Amino acid sequence: MASENVMHANGHGAGAHADYLDSTKGLWSWLTTVDHKRIGLMYLWSVVFFMITGGLLALLIRLELLTPGPTIMDAELYNRAFTLHGAIMTFLVIIPGIPAALGNFILPLLLGAKDVAFPRLNLTSYYIYVVGALMALSTLILGGVDTGWTFYTPYSSTTGGGVSMMVLAAFVLGFSSIFTGVNFIATIHKMRAPGMGWFELPLFAWGMYATALIQILATPVLGITLLLLVMERVLSVGIFDPNLGGDPVLFQHFFWFYSHPAVYIMILPAMAIISEVIPVFSKKTIFGYKAIAFSSVAIALLGFLVWAHHMFTAGMSLFAGAIFSFITFFIAVPSAIKVFNWIATMWRGSISMKAPMIHAINFLLIFTIGGLTGLFLAALSTDVHLHDTYFVVAHFHYVMAGSNMIALLAGLHYWWPKMFGRMYNERMAAIAAALIFIGFNATFLPQFLMGSRGMPRRYYNYLEQFQELHVLSTIGSWILAFGLFMCLAVLLASLRGKKGVASNPWGGKTLEWEALSPPITHNFEDTPVLVHGPYDYRPQPVPVVVEREQGVTH
Amino acid sequence: MTWFRDFLLGTPAATHASDVDGLYIFITLLTIFFFFFNGALIFYAAKRWKRRSDDEVTPHITHDTRLELIWSLIPLAVVMLIFFWGFKGYVSAWVAPNDAMEIVVTGKKWLWEFEYPDGTRALNDLHVPVNKPVKLIMHAEDVIHSFYVPAFRLKRDVLPGRYTEMWFTATEPGVHQVYCTEYCGKGHSDMLARIYVDTPEEYEVFLREGDEQVRKMPLKDLGKLVYENKGCATCHSIDGTRGQGPTFKGIWGKMERGTDGKEHVVDENYIRESILVPNAVVVQGYEPIMPTFQGLLRERELLGMIEYIKSLQ
Ligand code: HEM
Ligand SMILES: [Cu+2]
Fold this sequence. Notes:
Chain A has helices at residues 2-13, 27-31, 36-64, 75-111, 119-138, 155-158, 163-190, 203-235, 248-282, 289-302, 318-346, 355-378, 380-386, 390-420, 426-452, 467-494, 544-549.
């Protein structure tokens, strides 16, 4: 209902065709907006802000590691820096990144809807995010946090500083994530354009749906675990600390019961973007629609059954180890299937190497390495060697920083003209993409080698023998930072120009391209009706009603 | 292949490492292969089917069941192979042989303590014989630590309030690095130890004379270490209070009356005899309860004890 009111107020107030950016003016109109597009943008700028903060911390960490022993800071500061980096990047950047920023903006447009199902809940979730973020930052005043983003007990229940505050921040952020998930599920169920069945959903929506499932089912477990930890710290109730009669390994089980599924909160949205970008820039229908859609859901569900693969050295039974390893390998298969589907989509297409496509290809290459290196860690005997070394650091940066962030960039470059009605400098954007790719690999490829040779993670000091690789990695971090900075500059520079991009600059077939660029507040002049499938690139698209009669699905 | 293995992982130094290395190299080759395979397909496609005009028409291919089966089943078979291979290696590193020598490992912020079967202890340096199974029984005193020996391809978490085990048979004489791999605070990255894998001759020397730390330690400090580690402290105080046995404070040079009614002066020979044959002379007023330390102390440790007692005036 709220959206109806605003729609009328804004729509009529500033002329029928004013876009959502200009429909109302002033900071207050943004802070109180319930327009999913504006909320998406507020999320986007917040995420960018924290990505810069977390990125600067990463540069400091890498600089410290340039030499063994003290370089620019002491051990305590170093431990606080990598904890804050990890916590910011996971809870404030990657988890909300694609769903809350891009998803909020694009999902209703893709569905042909006016807004999400619960616009006010959407705004609430943004403010909860802001509160959680401020709480996380306030730990800086409370003496910092030095536990690592995993908060392992009993270290975390006994160390000083702002651990309780950081843990509560993650708890609060969990609610923001749950609200977004609830909203998306309801939106996908209820707000699809007339004529859009489940198998005419763009794959981005399938990805968001699978992500939302995990957000709703897993996040509460993290919430409870974190609350128990705070209870132990503040009230000395023995739960995880053996000195109080608790069990420290229990915490690890609880933590990973959330945090393993959470890694799929990070990758499914990335895959969702790639599934949109590749068909458009190949001008060809997606290969294996159902395989991609179902493998997202399969990954989301199987993801709940593998948490203890993070604990193979923590002392579990042989049988448990075998089961968790076995199921973990099963998840690798849908990931492989998706990669082959994307490549098959490009095959015999009409491929246009624009900036979004360059990022998408970078994603394919980086995710191939990220996924395959997961196999080393899923296998029991090799994981015993590699666990808690730089190999794990490299693996999860390939899938989180590499795949997730690069997919976010692919999506941002793809939907930028829709979001702002302006086109960025394509050449410069392509150069930035190449720099990011080179910098990323220079930073993290050496870390695999460091890890397999025995360099443990979370080490302030290290043996001489690892220095060359650390230097390489640090130099890589500068290239990466420069590439990202250039990318941001190119995008922002476009905002100085005049609006005036066509509504469908890339030739996409999904509904968001039928809206104006940028869209009006209520998205579409008239509710769009789905005529042909989301990836129908035939010269004469076949109406979905006809296809359904013929039993064709995409 | 060995240069490749040594480049990636370093030279292995324990029996079960070769199995881990085999699997590691297999997955490495697989990763390299698929990276270049996917990369080649992508670049071929991008070049071959580069868009030349905006109204190019592409074939409408929605799926291909046979192809999809192939690229689902082949990866499935490969990952199952990897699973069994990894499981096999894990099992072989699971149960220690019965004749394994047992060493107790204590991890605490930020050092490793080793206790040998004979009760001697050492900090951060562990001596083991080559080609003999050794079992570590580990626990932590404060937070979780993890005991990692890259050259053995082994790692095990060390938990407070619980024991975990790890065993190995070292095959390469030399010094191997040990790291703590569970984050434990400020000194985490300095919580290092070394395992000295000794040849039988070197190990003989170690058994007779102790490790370098012990050999280099001043006698008095060595005596203090023995006093604290070998159980003397449970009965003999060093501050004059009376325990199960006489205090060591001021005992040097004193005359003691034994239960045999004779006076004995506390000198080198008296102390030596009291340790090795405790019941030869028992001081009046005490029970003959002290066990013999024959065979439990090295010669230099006896000398150290004497020096230590001398110093307690
Ligand atoms: C083919 C798929 C994958 C497999 C088989 C796999 C397997 C594993 C395993 C077994 C571990 C535990 C390693 C250890 O701690 O010893 C691990 C760590 C991790 N993986 Fe993956 N992974 C895969 C993909 C992903 C993806 C897609 C993401 C996220 C986007 C991800 C994120 C992480 C993270 C964050 C950690 C470590 C967290 C930490 O210890 O701080 N992985 N992976
Ligand atoms: Cu996991």
